[in-house]
Design a protein that fits this description.
- The complex is a heterodimer of chains A (about 200) and B (about 290).
- Chain A has about 200 residues and is an alpha/beta fold.
- Chain A has helices at about 10-15, 35-45, 90-95, 110-120, 130-135, 145-150, 180-195, and strands spanning about 1-5, 20-30, 60, 65-70, 70-75, 100-105, 120-125, 140-145, 155-170.
- In chain A, strand 1 (about 1-5), helix 1 (about 10-15) and strand 2 (about 20-30) form a beta-alpha-beta unit.
- Chain A is globular and about 60 Å long.
- By secondary structure, chain B is an alpha+beta fold.
- Chain B is about 40% helix and about 20% strand.
- Chain B contains eight helices and eleven strands.
- Chain B has helices spanning about 5-20, 25-35, 40-60, 85-100, 145-150, 160-175, 195-205, 215-230; strands at about 70-75, 110, 115, 125-130, 135-140, 155, 185-195, 245-255, 260-270, 275-280, 285-290.
- In chain B, the strands form three sheets. Chain B has a five-stranded mixed β-sheet with strand order 4-1-5-10-11, covered by helices on one side. In chain B, strands 6-9-7-8 form a four-stranded mixed β-sheet. In chain B, strands 2-3 form a two-stranded antiparallel sheet.
- In chain B, strand 10 (about 275-280) and strand 11 form a beta hairpin.
- Classes of the chains: A alpha/beta (about 200), B alpha+beta (about 290).
- Chains A and B meet through helix 5, strand 9 and helix 7 of A and helix 3, strand 3 and helix 6 of B.
Chain lengths: ~200, ~290
């Protein structure tokens, strides 16, 4: 199934999505990688709030190339980064900030999958490296936070997007995890190939 | 124009080409594999890649936001007029390319943070220098993304495990890389030499011509065998279990110490980026974009 979501995405709509569905997002996408996840969670634990509201929006594992254009910014290239690095704190992030969609590449593990089930979130895989395809869906740069402190790849870029995608749901809110399923198959094949190696 | 200026301009141009022009041979291969892929999920990944690289070529913008840690492979001819000054020229070219293309600032000083210009003295950009006879400078730009660099593998095998041990290690490393480094992959395997140099051999193996097998028929057979077996793992495009896992695999071998069997495995994402220029002592430049 193909879905065109608008942020903030209601939890009921998120729970309709299943592994293998294709989604496009219109509304708000916010980039956050390792440092932005850490800093947001540190603020949360100190009882403070990050400068943006992640509730119901799409969080994008991405360190884009940006260029100054007049008073604003232009997005040069903005493909996904490897999501696995965020596995160590994505569950806490979902619990604290309740985003509707996590966008990245390479898939994520059990901790994220459990948080997606519990809090109503999905993981959408954007094709790795397809940075200009991503730019096509970005209509404008609404804001940027922590640029000075974290640098261009790691800071929070707040994008206005229109039919940003396609993303394939690889983690749904029902315990489905396509990447984990493929991993099991690959491991079994690896063992067979190695056992038969001459 | 001074020879310094010629080399600097050429290096900037090489970095632009690597970032924006995906080799046509790879495009053809992905088009073919897209048609052969059963399963819409796998097919859709190749559709996205092909759309992306077409946009990059048309707009002259980077195909991937990760424009890599900048590296140059250098073959410096004995009679080429520029010698130790080459490093400064390539550093300047890297700074210029970062602004002009633009490239993402990817050089992070562990203590001071991102340098913002892809340069961090004395080691970045990385230079691999080889001295060769003749009047030419052969310069290959090879920026490499972080995602697929993170899945590289290295092991000092017990020599008694022999080639079978090497082959199993390749399978193990690719299975571990899984979805993480943007498959379909290019694989470089370095066998022998020392604990560090096997990794350089593996990286240089990635630069070998696309689908041209090793000149040694025995090694060529192993390359074929391993490429087939890596694809049997079924990781698939972007690790989604459908479509190709690897596009090519090359092995570079060297002699080893009797007690050691070093193996290095360097993996590239589908966006393997490299382009070579030959610059004559007279300042004439020839760029070779073939894969």
């Amino acid at each position: 199934m193909e879905y065109h979501l608008k942020t903030p995405v209601p939890e009921a709509e998120v729970r309709k999505l299943r592994v293998g569905d294709v989604i496009y997002v219109t509304g708000t996408v916010i980039t956050a990688r390792d440092e932005a996840h850490l800093k947001s969670l540190e603020l949360h634990e100190a009882g403070k709030r990050p400068p943006v509201d992640f509730k119901g929006v799409a969080v994008f594992h991405c360190g884009p190339i940006m260029r100054k254009a007049g008073k604003g910014w232009e997005t040069v290239a903005a493909g996904p980064t490897t999501s696995d690095r965020m596995e160590i704190f994505q569950d806490k992030f979902i619990e604290a900030f309740r985003p509707a969609v996590i966008i990245g590449k390479g898939g994520m593990g059990d901790r994220t999958s459990k948080a997606c089930q519990q809090y109503g979130c999905v993981y959408g895989a954007f094709t790795g490296g397809a940075a200009l395809l991503a730019v096509k869906g970005i209509k404008g740069v609404r804001d940027v936070f922590w640029l000075e402190e974290l640098g261009m790849p790691e800071c929070l870029w707040v994008y206005d997007v229109d039919d940003f995608g396609p993303m394939i749901i690889t983690i749904d809110a029902h315990g489905g995890n396509l990447t984990a399923d493929v991993k099991k198959l690959v491991t079994a094949r690896r063992d067979r190939i190695m056992a038969e190696m001459k | 124009m001074t020879i310094e200026k010629v080399v600097e301009d050429t290096a900037v141009e090489l970095l632009r080409i690597t970032a924006t022009e995906y080799p046509k041979e790879y495009v053809k291969e992905l088009e073919k594999l897209m048609k052969e892929t059963r399963g819409e999920v796998g097919k859709s990944q190749m559709v996205s890649i092909l759309e992306d690289v077409a946009l990059a070529r048309k707009e002259s913008w980077p195909m991937c936001q990760d424009t890599g840690l900048v590296a140059f492979m250098v073959k410096l001819g004995d009679e080429f007029p520029l010698r130790s000054g080459l490093k400064e020229v390539l550093v300047n070219a890297t700074r210029r390319a970062t602004k002009e293309i633009p490239l993402r600032p990817n050089a992070v000083d562990m203590l001071k943070g991102n340098t913002n210009d892809n340069v961090c003295d004395p080691h970045v950009p990385i230079l691999y220098v080889e001295l060769v006879p003749g009047k030419n400078l052969e310069l290959t730009a090879m920026p490499k993304g972080g995602g697929s660099s993170n899945v590289a593998a290295h092991r000092m095998l017990k020599p008694g495990l022999g080639m079978k041990g090497v082959k199993n290690f390749v399978i193990e490393a690719l299975a571990a890389a899984g979805s993480l480094g943007c498959p379909p992959y290019f694989v470089g395997v370095g066998v022998g030499a020392s604990e560090d140099y096997c990794m350089v051999l593996a990286k240089k193996a990635l630069l070998k011509p696309f689908k041209v097998r090793n000149t040694d028929p025995k090694i060529a057979t192993i390359e074929e065998e391993l490429l087939t077996k890596v694809n049997e793992l079924g990781i698939g495009a972007m690790g989604l279990g459908e479509g190709p896992t690897a596009l090519d695999l090359h092995i570079e071998m060297a002699a080893r110490h009797p007690a050691s069997l070093p193996v290095g495995i360097v993996i590239s994402c589908w966006a393997l980026r490299h382009v070579k220029a030959t610059i004559g002592a007279d300042g004439k430049v020839r760029i070779d974009k073939s894969a």
